[in-house]
Every structure is written in structure tokens, then in C-alpha cells.
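User: Show me a protein chain along with its predicted structure.
Assistant: Here is one chain, sequence first, then C-alpha cells.
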Amino acid sequence: MNPAMKERLQIHKKADSSASKSEQGQLQSHLLTTHSQFGSQKPIVQAKVENQEFQQDQFEATKLKIQAKHGTITPEGQERLTVLQAKMNESLQQGKEHSLQFGHNIDKMAIRRTDTVSLVQMEPLIQPKLTIGQAGDQYEQEADRVATSVVNQINSPTLQKQEGQQTNLPSSSNEQANSKQILAADKKQKFLQEYSLAKTLVNGIDHTLPEDKILEQLFKNFGNIQFQYTMVSKSQETLLKGSPEGDCQTLARAFKKVAEEYFGIEKITVESIAKPFLTEAGVTPYQGKKPNCDDGKRWFFQNHYWASWNGKVYDVLFLTHKRTEADMAKQVQPLTSMLMPEQEYYETEKGKIVYPIVNKYSTVDINIFDKLKNFVSNLGRFFSDNMSAIVNKIQSLLSKGGNNASGFDSLMRELENDKTSTVISNNQNH
């Protein structure tokens, strides 16, 4: 025990408990003086700043190590990693030297203010009473033991936090969390590098929002990619790499890919209507694409795709959350008829006949279609020579669109007149 310690702790052996507290306070004062003297050589604030710099270097080095592990580190990054490792090794070596010189690690001391160390809160943790006597006797040894206990309490993990701050190095759990964050950031960066159009789709989206909010913003961003609806399916990768064209399937799968692989949102499904159908859905938001049936009044689809998550519909083609109302065809493959301009048609559940005209479609009510078939069938019994001319007239009318009821009535009257004239002519000849 050093002379200064003995001088401060000259106390009668038979002192009572109040005297013991006084002795303990003197010991704490002496330790505080010792720390203050050490602080003059290397202030605690400086140590704390150096510790923060160490943590920053360690975080950057961890990221570079992960890149090296996955083979994505650049030559500059490898050089930076070497510098950081050397710097951290030097910092650790200096910390060990200070620890050997002063008997404890000053970087791990509890800090309450920038210039002092509070020992008052440690007092309840010091139980032994001081009973100091001659130099080298059992009482001096007991004093040394108590002093050692105080220093150990200073370095105790329970006292390393003061006013919400912790000055020790990051724990393994923090390192794991940092590694996960770095991996997630690298994954996002690679995704945007591979799929340039995805930058527009994720623009302005806060990654910390709830999943439903993220999906809603992603859904709306599809209106900003200048998509061209060609009604021909393309892969979602082709779209995301910078060719925004395709059909509803292309859009739905691109939505799913960005949501899952970039934002990490799971359980998104792509649903579909697999059979041909009519729908009253309006113009698509992509360059104002008009419906392909009945001169822009309705759509005729061979199938339709949309995304779904947690029971919510994301119809990316129409940018709506409503399910498409469909008048389903009664068959998958088209029927054929000599009356149709291109020899094929579909009959729907709601009584419509859908037939193609070049690259578009038209409809006619099934009752009118049945009348035409019956009329042509009956005419065949009277004059087979004029059958082709009659069919040509019907096809000509259908090619102009099947919703002109007055046109069909006019054709029917014309055919009836032709039939009557033919019958009269035949009677006169007989």
C-alpha cells in the first residue's frame, strides 16, 4: 500500500460504523484523485471519442469483409480494409498498454460528466468496513482488497451505462444486426443495378413503413414507367431491365418480383382468369389504351392476371383494387360458323356472341345471331344458287360491328323481299 493511501486512512482500529463510512469516503476521494490525474494524461472525453471512431471503423470494416466474402469487393475496397484493420489493431494495442500502466481500462469507466467519474452510486456495492493498522498487517491488506473492489466495480458491466450511454465496444448481437443490415443494403443495391427500371418503381418509398403501405406506393409507381400495353406477354425481367412493354401477366409478375426480392414482402401470389371473357373495364392507364371490342366499349380477353396479397387485389393493368367483372365464354376454343367474318366466335354466359374482326372484336346478341342462322338455313331450301351472295351480305354487315340492330333489320327485310320475288318468279314460270 502506498504512503499516500496510508496517510489518508489513519484511523483508530476501534472506530464505529460512522467512522467506517468516513474512511470509505476518504478512499473514494483518493481513487477519484487518481482517476483525475490519469485523465490529465488522456481525458475520458477523448477516450470516448476514440471509442466511437473505433466503432465506426469496425462497422465499415465489417461491410468490406462481407463484400470480400461474396467476391464483390473492389481493389479500392480491399486496400481500405487493410488500412482499417491496421488502424483498429493499433487502437487495441494502445488500449492494452494503458490497461497495464494504470491497472484498469479507462475506456470502460462509467461516465457521468466529461470531467469527473461518479463513485457515489457505487457506495452500496462496497460492503467491507475499513480497519487499517500498521503497514503490511491484515488491516492494510483488507484496505488493499477494498480498493481493488472499487476498481472492479468501476469496470463492472452493470456500471458501464450512465445516462443512457454505453462506452464499451459493440456486442456480438449488435455486430450480427449490423451484418444483416449491410447484407440487405447490398442485396437492394445489386437488384437496382441489374434491373434499371426498378429504380422508378421503388422511388420515394420509405422502407420502414408497414408492408401494406409499401405495396400501395409500389402499386401506384407502376403508373410512372411509361408502360406500353401490347397484349403480348413478356417476361418480368425484360420489363424491369428497361423494356416496359407486355401484358397484364408481365405487370403482375413484375410487381411480385420487386415486392419480394427488393422489399422482402412474402406471400404475394399471381392469380388469373384462364378462359376467354368479356369485361366492361375501361381504358388502361398506360398510354390510354382503349378496349379492343365494340369500338372501345368493352374488352375481350383470352385470360387475365393480377397480383394478390393478404386478400387484397392489385390489378396492375388497370391500377385498381377491384376484381374484374367477367362475362365468361362457354368454351375455351372458338366455335366456327359460315356467318362469321373469320369463321370463329365465342358464346358468353350472358347471351353475347363475340367474334373477331381483323385484330379487334365485336359482339352481337345471341337472339339476332340465331335468327340469322335460321334464316339462312331456310333460304337454302329455296335457292341454293344465291346462297353465297346472301352470306356475303351478312358477313359485310357483321364486319361493320354487330351492335347495329337497324342494320340487321334492314338486311332481314332485304332478304325477305328477295325470297318473295324469287317465289313469285318461280310461280310465273310454272
